[in-house]
Amino acid sequence: MILLSGGSISSSSIHCHIWGWGWGYPPPSSFITKKLIKQKQSFSKLYCSSNSQVDYQVLSAINTPYNDILILDTADSRMLLLDSTHNIHSIFIKGEGQPWTGSYWDEFSSLPPIIPQGPIAIFGLGGGTAAHLMLTLWPSLQLHGWEIDQILIDKARQHLGLSHLEKHTQSGGLLNVYIGDALSTSTTIPGGYAGIVIDLFSGGDVLPQLQQVETWLQLNDKLMPNGRLMVNCGGTTSSWENNSTLKTLCKAFPGQVNWKKMPKSEGENYLALTGPLPDLTLWAAALPDRLGVSVMQWASCFP
């Protein structure tokens, strides 16, 4: 999830803030109602602080028992906005080439070189942004994506390319999609996961269960030996020591938690990685240059 700055909304324009990867903005005013307007809207304009503008279209707007879903389409990308916060939870980059987002989803795709071989889980699959990046860089991966909202998954299959990830790559990789509570016992698999990516939010906040040490111990039990958790801990705090999710992780795994903060242009999310701090030079060498530079910013919470 990317937190959006609150631009003003008028009848003639939507003012937006430019993130590193593209456009971050409040949604159309029709979305800021208790019940969404469900029919597709015609193309409108986004007017941004740079005085440039971009066309967008609302592909889907629907209420579910779990989310208020809004999917926007532009020439370059499609974006999934959820909840009353209207924050971006997934982005699908159109066209050929690497689908870099310029945000924390890119960091999730750096996980495979520092974990054992084996299946990787994504708890909080959303529209599949992290899965798309992982299978692009590591096409033999076996991914297990968990999402609680069946309707969200249906919309992601229709509009965000998720169904393509559910087909085997030429290297045998695949995303297996499961509907259910990622924190339940049903997500456990024999032998455990090599890694678990955790991106669980509701109403703009990290799930309250992730502020409990016991939850993290249960998640850690789902890993195989030497497996790791990589976590989106959200943002807004001035230092990692004040991030409640990171603090809880440090209590759960003393001496075994690492952190980094995304730059302002990329959302300012805090990320956590369990286990010993990897050899950053070796880790970077196993990644594309873009990610290799970024992983050098990881640091231990227990220097």
TrEMBL record:
Q: Does the keyword Acyltransferase apply?
A: no
* InterPro entries the UniProt entry points to: Lys/N-term_MeTrsfase_sf (IPR051419), SAM-dependent_MTases_sf (IPR029063)
Q: Name one GO molecular function term.
A: methyltransferase activity
- Keywords in alphabetical order, please: Methyltransferase, Transferase
Q: Name one GO biological process term.
A: methylation
List the protein's name: Spermidine synthase
Read off the SUPFAM superfamilies from this record: S-adenosyl-L-methionine-dependent methyltransferases
- Span-the-membrane segments of this chain are none
Stated family: Belongs to the methyltransferase superfamily.
Q: Record's superkingdom?
A: Eukaryota
**The keyword Repeat is assigned to this record:** no
